[in-house]
Design a protein that fits this description.
The protein is α/β, with parallel strands linked by helices. Helix content is 34%, strand content 14%. The chain binds adenosine-5'-triphosphate (ATP) and nicotinate mononucleotide (NCN). Adenosine-5'-triphosphate binds next to strand 1, helix 1, strand 6, helix 4 and helix 7. It catalyses: beta-nicotinamide D-ribonucleotide + ATP + H(+) = diphosphate + NAD(+); nicotinate beta-D-ribonucleotide + ATP + H(+) = deamido-NAD(+) + diphosphate.
């Protein structure tokens, strides 16, 4: 069932004392372009420079290849109820994302909406952004003071997008909503081919933009957690303020043995192995509600 606005939920639930962050939304400079807000959903446990670089890659691609103009960029850390191994509690993950945003000095905003409540599907998260920006705020301004509706789009690595072709992980109606109504920018990720990631999503090709990594960089949160467990330095893989925060709070010292024992050089294989051996327990689309979490695909 969709709401009158075409959202997949009738009403949004907000965490206590929640305010939508919008102080770094920008004015549209070129009125001939379509304003777009990029939303990256994920665990961010912890946030790395690669998560931050995704936005830079997308902004370059958009500026050179599309008729969009980026007016806002957001990280949306997932709820603790996602229950993925290595998922530190939302309080720390959001704090680290905020430190990374401050450190970058740019326009990145952290939306704690999904982090501090029950699990919310990505289709609902994108609806939440659309509602807050286009309905509550009334869109963004052009330099002439005219108000424009903003296009909300998902930003994700090719590993995440390839799960959209895995049976049982995403519901078809949510894919129709995410890829048909909103659209996605996909950042190439080592070990997860772009073509393979999108082969089964051809129906929505017009809304899927693929961005190659010109400098290969395979930093992942899993590897960072493994380094920390083994007492290895993670400086220059993530912002200094985040490294300091991890040290001060003694984070990622006691992750599960299974994760800690994984080979540092085999994250891709580790992902494949875990997704092929662990059954995906997500309920069929028709049964799922906004309060359920898909069993994490990497569990
Ligand atoms: N090195 C990378 N290249 C491209 N995309 C990336 C990279 N690292 C993370 N991403 C993307 O960032 C988003 C959030 O990722 P997530 O928080 O799961 O990070 P991760 O490093 O994959 O975490 P973990 O190692 O814990 O699985 C996802 O869309 C993911 O595909
Ligand atoms: O909405 C869904 O059905 C859905 C199915 C699988 C994954 N997701 C989202 O994709 C993100 C995956 O993050 P991660 O860290 O497991 O790569 C996270 O934000 C999940 O909420 C969402």
């Amino acid at each position: 069932m969709t709401s009158p606005a075409g959202y997949v939920t009738e009403a949004f639930t907000n965490p206590p004392n929640y305010n939508f962050p919008h102080d770094r939304l920008e004015t549209l400079r070129d009125a001939s372009k379509t304003p777009v807000v990029l939303v990256a959903c994920g665990s961010f446990s912890p946030v790395t420079y690669l998560h931050l670089r995704m936005f830079e890659m997308a902004k370059d691609y958009i500026r050179h290849n599309t008729e969009f103009e980026v007016v806002g960029i957001y990280l949306s850390p997932v709820s603790d109820m996602y229950k993925k191994p290595g998922l530190l509690n939302a309080h720390h993950r959001v704090n680290m994302c905020n430190l990374a945003a401050q450190d970058s000095g740019g326009s990145l905003m952290i939306d704690p909406w999904e982090a501090f409540q029950a699990y919310q599907r990505t289709a609902i998260v994108l609806d939440h952004f659309d509602y807050e920006i286009n309905t509550v705020l009334g869109g963004i301004s052009t330099q002439d003071g005219e108000h424009r509706k903003v296009r909300v789009m998902l930003l994700a690595g090719s590993d995440l997008i390839s799960t959209m072709s895995e049976p049982g992980v995403w519901s078809y109606s949510d894919l129709e909503h995410i890829l048909g109504r909103y659209g996605v920018f996909i950042i190439e990720r080592a070990g997860s081919g772009m073509d393979q990631a999108t082969d089964n999503l051809a129906k929505w090709r017009h809304n899927i933009y693929m961005i190659s990594q010109l400098i290969q960089n395979d930093v992942s949160s899993t590897k960072v957690r493994l380094f920390l467990r083994r007492g290895l330095s993670v400086r220059y893989l993530l912002p200094n303020s985040v490294v300091d925060y991890i040290e001060e709070n003694g984070l990622y010292q006691d992750e599960s043995a299974a994760n800690a024992n994984a080979s540092l050089s085999e994250k891709g294989k580790e992902k494949e192995a875990s997704s092929s051996t662990a059954p995906l327990k997500k309920e069929p689309a028709a049964l799922s509600t906004s309060r359920e979490s898909p069993t994490c695909r990497k569990c």
